[in-house]
Amino acid sequence: MRNRVDRFVRSRVIPREAVLDGGGPAAADALAELRDRAQEEGLWAQPLPVELGGGGLDFRTYAGLAEVEGASDHGPAALGSAPLLDVTMLARHGGTAVREAYLKPLVAGELRTCYAMTEPDVPGTDPFGTATRAEPGPDGSWLVTGRKWFTSGAAGADLVTVMARTGGSAGDREGLSLLLVPTASPGFRIVRELPVLGAGGQYEIELDRVRVPADHLLGEPGDALTIAGERLALGRTLRCLRWLGQAQRAFDLMCERAVTRSGSRGPLAEQQLIQSHVFDALLALRTTRPLVHEAVALIDAGRDARTEVGLAKVAAARMLQQVADSAIQVHGAAGLGPDTPLPALLRTGRAARILDGPDELHITSVARRALRAYGPRARQDPEGAVQRS
Ligand SMILES: Cc1cc2nc3c(=O)[nH]c(=O)nc-3n(C[C@H](O)[C@H](O)[C@H](O)COP(=O)(O)OP(=O)(O)OC[C@H]3O[C@@H](n4cnc5c(N)ncnc54)[C@H](O)[C@@H]3O)c2cc1C
Q1: Of 218, 205, 139, the residue nearest 176 (C-alpha)
Q2: Ligand 1 contact, 149 CB (< 6 A)
Q3: Does the first or last residue of the chain, that is N or C, have fewer Cβ atoms within 10 Å of its Cβ?
C-alpha cells in the first residue's frame, strides 16, 4: 500500500502541483480527477473509518503511508485523508445531529473544513486570552462574534471550528468552547488572504453575531482545551510525518543534482563540502524519523505523548528547514528559481517552526516536564527514577 501511495503521489499528484497551487476552477477540476482516480485505485481515505467510507487503517499503520502521501502538500486532499483530524474530533465530541450531518460527507470529500483558534490581537501561544465570544441566543443557539487569522483553507471551507469564550473573561483558564460554524451562516466573512512568504491559503476571518445551533457546540461548554489538546497532538504528529515525506523529497532532489551536475572538477557529488550537506541532511532525517514514530505509537496506544510530540515537532520542523536549505544550496540559483519545489519546501519548513505552536513553546514545556522528574517531589517518589529514563 505504501508503494502504491508513493507511486500515486509521484506520478499523478506531483506533476499537477503547479495547476493545484494556482487555485480556481482548473485546480478544482484537477483535484476532482485525482480523487476519482484514488477511489478507483482503492487508495481513498485510508486512515478513516470503514463504516464512514474510509479504508479503516489504524494510525500506526497509516503513519507509513502519511509520509509518502505528504511528500506533496496536495497528497492528503487528493487521497482523501485530509479530513482525518476533523473526523476524529467530530466522531468523539460531536453530538448525534453533527455526526449524522457531517461525518459521511466529510469522508466522501464533499465538505471542507478549517480550524480557527489564532487571533490577531492575542498571542496564539496563550489561548486563555481568546477574545472571540459565543453568547447564548434566544432559542438555545450561540451567537459568535470575533476575529481569527491564519485560518488555513478558510476560503473554500464549508465548516469552521471556532474557539470562543462561552464563559468567564479574558485570561480565565475556564470557559473556552469549540463551536462548529457553517461558513454559509450570515455574519461570517473572509476579511483577507494572508500570503505566507508569498504563498496563499491562509485567511483572516470575521464572525459578527453568527448564529450557531446549540448542537454544534463540541463536547460540553468549557471543553475546548481538552478537545484542542487531543486534536493538536494528533495534528502535530501528522504534520511531522508529512514533513518527513517532504524532507525526503528535498533530499532526493539534492542527491540527484549532486551526481548529475558536473564542472571541470567533476561531479558536485565528489566535493567534500557537498558530501557534508548530504551527510547532515541524512542524519537529520534518520534521527527525526524514530522520534516521530515514537509519538505515533503512543498516540495510537492512547497514552500520554506530550513529551514525544513536542520533541518530534521541534525536530521535524528544524529538519525540514535544514534539508530544504541544503538542497537549495546544492542546486545554486536553480534552487531558488521556479523549476523545483525547493522554495515551497523551504517555506513549509520555516512556517513549521511557528505553526501548531512555535519551537519555544514546545522546548519549554518538554524541558519543564523533563526537569520535574528531578525535582524534590520526584526524588521522594520511587517512580521518579523511571520517569527520568
Ligand atoms: C502557515 C500557517 C498556518 C497556520 N494555520 C493555522 C490554522 O489553521 N488555525 C489556527 O488557529 N492558527 C493557525 N496558524 C497560527 C499559528 O498556530 C500561530 O501563529 C502560532 O500558534 C503562534 O501564535 P502567534 O502567531 O500568535 O505567536 P505569539 O503567541 O505571539 O508568539 C510569538 C513568538 O513569541 C515567542 N514565544 C511565544 N511563547 C513563548 C514561550 N512560552 N517561551 C518563549 N518564547 C515564546 C516565540 O518566538 C513566538 O514565535 C497558522 C500559522 C501559520 C504560519
Answers
A1: 218
A2: no
A3: C
